[in-house]
Amino acid sequence: MPEEEAAERLAMRLDNIDIVDSFKVSDKYSIVETKVPARYVGMTLREANLTNIYKVIVLTTVKITDVKKDGVTKEQKEASGIAISETMMEEGDILVVFGELSNINKLIQKGE
User: Fold this and answer.
1) Which CATH number goes with the domain that contains 46?
2) Residue 46: which domain range?
């Protein structure tokens, strides 16, 4: 049901301020948008080794920039496309990650 899914997504964001959004793929797996953990800023995906350490896959990274148009500033999101091993994680970037929610939470908590 859409209402239940929306409630779960909101609860997840309230539970962890680093989660931007989430999508439950199945009972076991989710896709989560989360801020790049501080300890990984300035590293490539290869250097961070997130797949082997946390058993998650980074699908893409998203940059958020402020764009001013007609005197109004709006946030603009730009996905980098499919993440590759040389993708650099920068402060303020969003990671779009696939995996078990428990593993994604470990990445977020241990990456601080």
Assistant:
1) 3.30.70.1450
2) 2-110
| Distance in angstroms (rounded) separating the CA atoms of residues 102 and 63 | 25
Q: What residue spans of 2-88 are helical by DSSP H?
A: 2-15, 45-48, 50-54
Structure confidence by residue, pLDDT tens digits, 53-109? 999 999 999 998 888 888 889 888 899 999 999 999 999 999 999 999 899 989 988
Length of the chain: 112
How far is it, in rounded angstroms, from Cα 80 to Cα 4?
A: 31
Token pair of 66 as six digits: 């402020």
> HEC string of 17-38?
CCEEEEEECCCCEEEEEEECCH
Residue 60: count other Cβ atoms within 10 Å of its Cβ: 16
Give me the number of domains the chain comprises.
1
